[in-house]
């Protein structure tokens, strides 16, 4: 069996002639935390959406665990264990933290959305939901509504609802975006803990997070792979440094 769990060949996405992702060959090793980084507009989010099937590529192919998933729908790949973290908007703000995880568990096991009619059924999931809350450090928050959670804890809830789907491979889109320093530390520890026995692909802006978590990094710039390797290798690559400095310079120029 291949050491790579997820592979792309010639992955390309054009938006009306603009090439956002250009001939990208990725190989993500089973059991690793793989970072996808790059300056603003590099194509990270587009790439992430291609891998999770939220976008269809213009060209190229994607293989996951020995299968060609290029033509599959997001729900189909999720059933195969390739799961993206839910966006915060997918958390139900008026349900409690515990109920949010129960609903995610029910979707995994039953695939049904008529949870409002089957309270007794949902209680069956309580024990597992509490375990997941424990795993992400939210036990003390179980009874709060999700809307009342502080931002960093919402991201932890998002990870708990993702874990409820029992992913083989998790794809996380900027899990630390907008977080305070303390929250970042907690989420880093959490990702490390939940990555045990799984593969994780992480799109992330915070390079400290990337250096602390990722076994292997792919740097994108202008839609193409600029460099790959461990953090030390890519961080000293002159092309990577130039791409990031160029990005900072243009950000500074934009902000005066
Ligand atoms: N739906 C779309 N239609 C047209 N252009 C798009 C679309 N989505 C993305 N793009 C363009 O593709 C390029 C790559 O965008 P993408 O969001 O993938 O980059 P990114 O690396 O995630 O950037 P950031 O770090 O700023 O989030 C950008 O120039 C963007 O404007």
TrEMBL record:
GO terms for cellular component: plasma membrane. Gene3D superfamilies: P-loop containing nucleotide triphosphate hydrolases (3.40.50.300). It holds the Pfam family BCA_ABC_TP_C. One of its GO terms (molecular function) is ATP hydrolysis activity. Keywords: ATP-binding, Nucleotide-binding, Transport. Residues 6-247 form the ABC transporter domain. InterPro entries: AAA+_ATPase (IPR003593), ABC_AA/LPS_Transport (IPR051120), ABC_transporter-like_ATP-bd (IPR003439), BCA_ABC_TP_C (IPR032823), P-loop_NTPase (IPR027417). SMART domains: AAA. PROSITE patterns: ABC_TRANSPORTER_2 (PS50893). This is ABC transporter ATP-binding protein. It comes from Neoroseomonas lacus.
